[in-house]
Amino acid sequence: MLLKQLPQVVQQLRCLSSATTAVTRLHRSVYCRLYPTVVVQPDGSTINIRYHEPRKIIKLPLDLSTLSDSERKARLEARKPRKKVKIMEEVEDNFNAKKYMKYIKKKK
């Protein structure tokens, strides 16, 4: 008899608040597949959400109109592809093979 009354006592002592949704499960009759994802806001703060596509991280775009002129130029320069610098070294070739012919044995 005490076991039958126990769940009612637990239900009555439970305090409902906005924080309980973070600890309990989703109360739905149909569960769709949601994947844990991290959203990075433009200021650098992160939020953990459930997203319908399997992604690890979603980065929100930065509004360039809120930046100063120097910061805007730096961001736009970082977006441009970097040019690859090709270094062509010219090696002086002063090798003389005739100088080493005396060390090579000829087959008879």
TrEMBL record:
<dbReference type="InterPro" id="IPR018615">
    <property type="entry name" value="Ribosomal_mL55"/>
</dbReference>
<dbReference type="GO" id="GO:0005762">
    <property type="term" value="C:mitochondrial large ribosomal subunit"/>
</dbReference>
<dbReference type="Pfam" id="PF09776">
    <property type="entry name" value="Mitoc_L55"/>
</dbReference>
<dbReference type="InterPro" id="IPR044884">
    <property type="entry name" value="Ribosomal_mL55_sf"/>
</dbReference>
<dbReference type="GO" id="GO:0003735">
    <property type="term" value="F:structural constituent of ribosome"/>
</dbReference>
<dbReference type="GO" id="GO:0006412">
    <property type="term" value="P:translation"/>
</dbReference>
<protein>
    <recommendedName>
        <fullName>39S ribosomal protein L55, mitochondrial</fullName>
    </recommendedName>
</protein>
